[in-house]
Fold Vacuolar protein sorting-associated protein 41 homolog.
Amino acid sequence: MTVHEKFLALGTHCGKVYLLDVQGNITQKFDVSPVKINQISLDESGEHMGVCSEDGKVQVFGLYSAEEFHETFDCPIKIVAVHPHFVRSHFKQFVTGGKKLILYERGWMNRWKPSVLHEGEGNIRNVKWRGHLIAWANNMGVKILDMVSKQRITNVPRDDISLRPDMYPCSLCWKDNLTLIIGWGNSVKICSVKERHASEMRDLPNRYVEIVFQFDTEFYISGLAPICDQLVILSYGKEISEKTEVECCARPRLDIVQPLPESCEEISSDALTVRGFQENECRDYHLEYSEGEPLFYIISPRDVVVAKERDQDDHIDWLLEKKKYEEALMAAEISQKTIKKHKILDIGLAYINHLVENGEYDLAARKCQKILGKNTELWEFEVYKFKEIGQLKAISHYLPRRDPVLKPLIYEMVLHEFLESDYEGFATLIKEWPGDLYNNTIIVQAVVDHLKKDPQNRTLLRTLAELYTYDQRYGRALEIYLTLRHKDVFQLIHKHNLFSSIRDKIVLLMDFDSEKAVDMLLDNEDKISIDRVVEELENRPELQHVYLHKLFKRDHHKGQRYHEKQISLYAEYDRPNLLPFLRDSTHCPLEKALEICQQRNFVEETVYLLSRMGNSRSALKMIMEELQDVDKAIEFAKEQDDGELWEDLILYSIDKPPFITGLLNNIGTHVDPILLIHRIKEGMEIPNLRDSLVKILQDYNLQILLREGCKKILVADSLSLLKKMHRTQLKGVLVDEENICESCLSPILPSDASKYFNVLVFHCRHMFHKECLPVSSTVSPVQFCNICSAKHRGPGGAILEMKK
């Protein structure tokens, strides 16, 4: 059999030739010979056919013309090949192969002239003609002839000579005009015809052949064909029967391999089931292919199998048949521009149905997002389908919320499903879904009905508050949030500016979270005044204190009218902050504060107030008598820096040895320790007296050292400055026509330089005519600058007297 892109030509053992269309229908029939047809050849146009048979007949004729050639040989002719361009008049050539390879050319007077191209190496087994190159195989190997130069350009020897060439025939095919593929036995060679360089020719043909790929297979080759940069190989092999354990013929295989320089990589392999394959041999199979369309024909004695390259539609069909829907969907998405048979949506819907049938409801719902996209009708159909099987919850989380938006009834149906069985899930959907997806009034009424059965259900109450918020009924939402003490209450107030609604709910807010409530109230004083807040908290002084304390921290003056009230509040609820308040406040009445502190016996606060009111001696007395803390008393005396206080402190401490020790250790830098030591009674036992005296002496020595050091620094600085002043006064002073007398304001120098003049220049740079200055007294002849003396800048003695 041979193949043309328009039809097939099939020869039989009965000598008949049939033309078939690509679907296998017979279109024409030719009775060529009573015996087996050995070979059929077609030119590229498909208009001429060459046929040879077992009885030696060779016919070349036109399928659509009366042109015909007949010849009968005295031996069987196995091969015939017409020129690829036989339709053209100057290419009327064909070759036949038996024991010889003979070329027939039509010459003058339409006579056919035979010429022997090759003989003497056994029967010609195969011939393939492409362009100007003829390749043939005989018992010894494969030859290639260049029809232009009429030279044989190569000989590719047969690898395995142990195989009978008639049982394991050679397969030849041209991939293109210069690439020949040879398959023989289990060996494959890919040969490239190349032009020889002019410098290498000499007596050699102008072309040569290079084997670019060569590899062996694990099977015998019955046929081969190119497909892109890969090879399709029809292979024959044997296997051990499982039943009889005897070697028998295996099914033929169609393999696609990727040639490598010395091996090959198998891409795919398919076993073919043909009738009678158990009795077939390697020579009984042939592979033909159509160059116009990627179709491959496997010919066996009883069957012709058509193979074509799988496309994505075939792959998707196989995946769907195996119920691999996810892979099928992925393959369709990748190849959506090339698939013709399938639609992504149909595959996706089949996938969803498959998941639902298998009980994978969550995965099916999740896939709806991707598969259904923006198709609202399909979404609604799937939702109802999930409702029928009782799985609305599964699809609820994947329903579209924006672009597209489904009918409100769909969302309400899902919410009712959750409300009946899952309050938490219902609350989650209300929080996640925008309020405009459903009829809010219907859902609110449904929640209210459920609350009648369970009025304390916090989940339903919280959800109802959110629904009221969506419905802009913020007052009701706020009441529920406050009842629940919900953390979102402050966010709700800020977001919707509900300050007018909380004027009478300040106590509730403070009870819930006093810190957040106070911060919010102080941040919005323009909406809820300080006076209003204090009034609302009048019956809750502990909360009132929290508010006023935070206000005072922010601004010491804003709540000054409440500072008197705050004294009692601090004393009652927050004593640690009372003293800082008294120190920082400039508006609290000291008498009132003193009264409260004395009533509550707050010593530290009373001491501070007494000292602030000028009663330092009473304050000191309280420290000594109430606190009995000499260190604090000493610290207080240091702060006041009053000699009388030190005297009182010494008098009070003179009969208390521990106090004397404290004084000796701390007053060395403020009071002369001798005053204290002279007053100590003789024989009084004082703790750590020796150490205290040593410390006094060390402090005294330290003071002496500091004074001496300061004195040295002062002397050194004075000397340095004196030297600097001396150097400055030794410098000359420029006097020119621009200078004036500071007394008479006339130029200091006369216009006539020949005249007599007398000028005094002081170190302060003021200049005078001598006659303009008052006469100096005889007691103190030193003259001083009148200007500097008048401004109390110092006298400034004269440094220069100029005369002429």
User: Anything to note?
Assistant: The mean pLDDT is 84. The chain has 28 helices and 32 strands. The longest strand covers residues 207-216. The radius of gyration is 60 Å.
